[in-house]
Amino acid sequence: MAQGVTVKITGAAELKKNIQYLREHFPDWLNAANEASAIEIRNQAQSNLRAIDAYDTHELHDTMAYAMFPNRFAAVVYSPAKQAPYIELGTAPNRRPPPIDKIKAWCGRKGIPESVAFVIARNIAERGTPERPFLFPAYWSVMMHGHVARIKAYVGAGLRKIAA
Predict the structure, then answer these.
(1) Residues of the chain with pLDDT > 90: what percent?
(2) What H or E segment, with its residue span, contains residue 69?
(3) Rounded distance, CA 72 to CA 155, Å?
(4) For the purposes of burial, counting CB atoms within 10 Å of the CB of 81, is it exposed (0-12), middle (13-18) or buried (19 or more)?
(5) Distance between CA atoms of 163 and 110, rounded to whole angstroms?
(6) Secondary structure class of 142 (helix, strand, coil)
(7) Residue 3 clears pLDDT 80, i.e. is over it
């Protein structure tokens, strides 16, 4: 059975007041739902980074952020970390190996002998790196399982204020 909101309007003045209330507050309700979803996507992406062990320096994890664009009813979840797209999408083979000093530092943090850094760099250059998505799965999970319900809840709560 569908739930609904019943509004009793007794005159033109009350109708005008309610329409004005909706015009003023509806954008706020949508933006609040978008921000709540953006926060959930960011948090899920951070959790995904830990799950795929892309948590080496914490830079990517710690720089996950979101930005709101209320005039467009939009939010963006992002990381300014340089490695974000390379982890999310992987890399293609490349003639030039990655910086050996970065590979040596990674080896040191992982307890791997630095003597194998050149071999690792050469393999990355020859084969690329696999994709390890963390942001898209977070987006998909939140948008498919909660965003529409969140919008309904925020708008419904606002509409109930009119009915009260």
Answers:
(1) 59
(2) strand 65-69
(3) 17
(4) middle
(5) 60
(6) helix
(7) no
- Consecutive H or E run containing 67: strand 65-69
Question: What is the identity of the amino acid at 122?
Answer: R
User: E strands along 73-137, which residues?
Assistant: 74-78
Q: What angle do CA 110, 92, 142 make, to 5 degrees?
A: 75
Instruction: Indicate the residue type of 24.
Output: E
Question: What six digits make up the tokens of 25?
Answer: 């507050």
Given a contact cutoff of 8 angstroms between Cβ atoms, the answer to whether 100 and 117 are in contact is: yes
119-143: buried (b, 16+ CB within 10 Å) or exposed (e) per residue?
ebbeebeeeebeebbbbebbbeebe
